[in-house]
Design goal:
Layout lengths: L1 H29 L2 E7 L18 H8 L1 E8 L5 H10 L26 H6 L4 E7 L28 E5 L11 E2 L2 E2 L9 E3 L4 H10 L27 E2 L2 E2 L3 E3 L11 H15 L5 E6 L21 H22 L6 E7 L22 E2 L2 E2 L13 H4 L3 E4 L7 E8 L3 H9 L15 H4 L10 E5 L1 E6 L2 E4 L16 E4 L15 H16 L8
Parallel strand pairs: 1-11, 1-12, 2-16, 3-4, 3-11
Antiparallel strand pairs: 2-15, 4-5, 5-6, 7-10, 8-9, 12-15, 13-14, 17-18, 18-19, 19-20
Helix pairs in contact: 2-7, 6-7
């Protein structure tokens, strides 16, 4: 009898344990996967559903048709590194002096800072970053040795897996970095890199490496793909001039034309490997940043040359990821976000067929990448940060168009709310919980948001205020006197009405000062 009771007790215990495991496993599986597809230099007007008539973007348009298309969605800054910093940390980059990084820069996000990847990882998610990083990598204490392990980096910031374009595609080193090591590394051809323009540093790199690359300043004819227009004339790799100098690593060099395919391939491997548990994938495309080198199958798909052909390639990337999710039966339980790190730019350093000056023009052969908004990349005007912003979750999010004011800096607090993660007051200090707005269950957006590029601007309702800035910066990139616009009446920011509404301007300047002084936007009363 005792033996029988013992067997029954063990059986019941096993059944209960299995039941608890099954319930726990099922609960884990029902957490939505989250995929952020981050375009580079993609303007508000570069997408069909946002008004583009000369660019075919059927896959992004389809994503919008099955989700929320925000018309007042923003990255936090008009350039790449600050926007990426803010997206991942929930903290505005100006607080850390983050700006566009040179080649081989060290990691600029403190490793003890709470990140978006941390929130997902600590909530039971697998986490990965694939694509352009441009937040620095390695230690500030010593130069990177690209022939050993390169760290700290994403793996110290909450990511389980990383496959990186370490800086960006116009900078050295022109190799992929998988986790800590150079992908396809050849020990017989060691890699040496410098972002310094000191003659001794350059000479040292050129002497050390086995494989030598032409110096574009001395051999412009080596730029066989297309020439540079300014800068981008250091090491010439794959016939394209880059920023910074590199030697060695010939076997490990990326092929610019196949970069989109490689990144999608790595994303597919990751999704399939982790499909049985919730995952977070931050897929940061190199498109449509310079050098624009679309695969030959996308060449000529538009009437506007390399820039827009690269946009067609980016649209393919979005379609490819959605296809993978569908094939793996994950579509219904995956939130997919498409957005960009800043507004559009045309000539950004290469003779790639764009026909306007980056500082003056906005229209290229009838196409305006920022739509009706003024400016683009590098500029504090609306076109610098108002970008495509689409959130899709089939079966959960009701397809709609939203005019709510939203920002990428709020992803961290919002996804913390989604996963049930509790942030303390010192974490993600500028990130506000906008989950209900991102999921379409609430229409009211942010009371205000900050935009940055050398100086700060404030959006509050239809009002846009730009604080004055004095300094050594390029005069074409800064506003030296206060500016105020009513975007409802003047969406293109053509008529500065600050003198007419001095009280409104002062009110908005006071908010900016409070944001600077207080411990983050989310803690303001």
């Amino acid at each position: 009898m005792k033996k029988l009771q013992s067997k029954l007790t063990k059986s019941i215990t096993l059944i209960l344990c299995f039941g608890l495991f099954a319930c726990s496993h099922q609960k884990e599986k029902t957490k939505p996967n989250v995929v952020i597809i981050y375009g580079d230099d993609v303007g508000f007007g570069d997408i069909g559903v946002y008004g583009a008539t000369k660019i075919p973007t059927p896959n992004i348009d389809n994503l919008a048709a099955n989700g929320i298309r925000f018309t007042d969605g923003h990255c936090s800054a008009a350039t790449c590194t600050p926007s990426r910093f803010s997206l991942l940390t929930g903290t505005h980059a100006f607080r850390y002096g983050a700006s566009i990084l040179p080649p081989d820069a060290p990691l600029i996000i403190p490793t003890d800072m709470k990140t978006l990847a941390d929130v997902f990882k600590e909530s039971g998610y697998a986490t990965s970053v694939i694509g352009k990083w441009h937040l620095g990598i390695g230690s500030k204490d010593k130069p990177n040795d690209w022939n050993t392990e390169v760290k700290p980096g994403p793996l110290e910031l909450g990511f389980d897996y990383s496959f990186l374009v370490p800086a960006t595609n116009d900078r050295v080193p022109c190799v992929y970095l998988e986790n800590y090591k150079v992908y396809n590394y050849d020990a017989n051809d060691p890699i040496y890199v410098t972002g310094s323009y000191n003659g001794d540093a350059i000479e040292k790199v050129q002497k050390q490496g086995s494989t030598q690359y032409p110096d574009g300043q001395k051999n412009r004819e080596a730029m066989t793909y297309y020439e540079s227009t300014f800068m981008h004339d250091n090491s010439v790799i794959n016939g394209i001039g880059r920023l910074g100098y590199m030697s060695g690593g010939k076997k490990a060099l990326w092929n610019d034309e196949t970069m989109a395919d490689v990144l999608v391939g790595k994303a597919k491997e990751y999704i399939i490997k982790n499909k049985e548990k919730p995952f977070f994938l931050y897929l940061a495309s190199q498109d449509i940043h310079v050098p624009r080198v679309p695969h030959p199958r996308f060449r000529g798909k538009s009437e506007l040359g390399y820039r827009v052909d690269a946009m067609v390639q980016l649209d393919w990337t979005v379609g490819a990821i959605n296809k993978i999710l569908k094939e793996q039966g994950l579509s219904e339980n995956t939130i997919v976000i498409f957005s960009s790190d800043n507004g559009p730019v045309y000539d950004d350093g290469y003779k790639d067929g764009t026909t306007v000056l980056r500082t003056l023009g906005e229209v290229d052969r009838g196409h305006d990448g920022s739509g009706k908004w003024r400016g683009g990349k590098y500029q504090i005007y609306e076109g610098g940060t108002r970008i495509p912003f689409i959130v899709s979750w089939p079966g959960t999010i009701k397809p709609t168009v939203s005019n709510a004011l939203v920002s990428q800096v709020d992803f961290l607090a919002s996804f913390a709310a989604l996963t049930g993660y509790t942030l303390d007051s010192k974490e993600a200090i500028d990130s506000r919980n906008m989950l209900d707005v991102f999921l379409g269950t609430k229409k009211e957006g942010l009371p205000y948001l900050i935009e940055e590029r050398f100086q700060l601007a404030l959006r509050k309702g239809n009002w846009k205020y730009i604080e004055p800035k004095m300094g050594k910066h390029n005069p074409s990139k800064i506003v030296k006197k206060p500016e105020l616009y009513n975007l409802l009446e003047d969406p293109s920011e053509q008529h500065n009405i600050v003198e007419k509404y001095l009280d409104k301007a002062q009110e908005m300047q006071n908010i900016i000062e409070q944001v600077k002084e207080e411990n983050g936007i989310k803690n303001l009363k």
